[in-house]
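Forum > Structural Biology > Help requests

Title: Can anyone predict the 3D structure of DUF2975 domain-containing protein?

Hi all, first post here. I have the sequence for DUF2975 domain-containing protein but no way to get a structure on my laptop. I'd be grateful if someone could post the structure tokens.
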Amino acid sequence: MKTKTDLILTTMKVIFWVVFIGLCIKTGALLISFIVSLAINPEASKNLYLGLNLSELYHSNLKHYIFIFSFIFSLSALKTYLSFLALKIFTKINLEKPFSTKAAELINKISLIALGTGILAFIASKYNFWLIRSKESILETNFYFEGWKGFLFLAGILFIIAQVYKKG
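Reply #1:
Sure, ran it for you. Structure tokens for DUF2975 domain-containing protein below:
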């Protein structure tokens, strides 16, 4: 008979797989629609992914369009990678003896990626704000750059946990 902890961990593993697959699809769809908007049909910039409309920016300044999209894509890719690393925890960490060098390295890696994601989201948010203030764009793309504080907070917490694992 499975314990409650085993059931919870199995459920979490399934949820992480669903999230990972969803983020892979989102990141891939973003990349494909961006390539289509640049190489085949500029009208594709009107609906890059789930209503993301960067057509105004595309037609007014291609450089800013590429920068904003690069931020959106990079953040999506980093979130996907974070979910992959979270899945890796289930396969790499022995729950009978969780305090290992391997576990500490994996948690430390996740904290560093979360830190990088937070810093990139902060930079993207400030760049987007600058575009709006300089009247280069009136787009409300900041939705894609919110959460940088949460990623920095997560990075700090995971860094502390990684240090505990190193000592354990």
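The longest helix spans residues 4-39. Residues 4-167 form one domain.
Shout if anything looks off.
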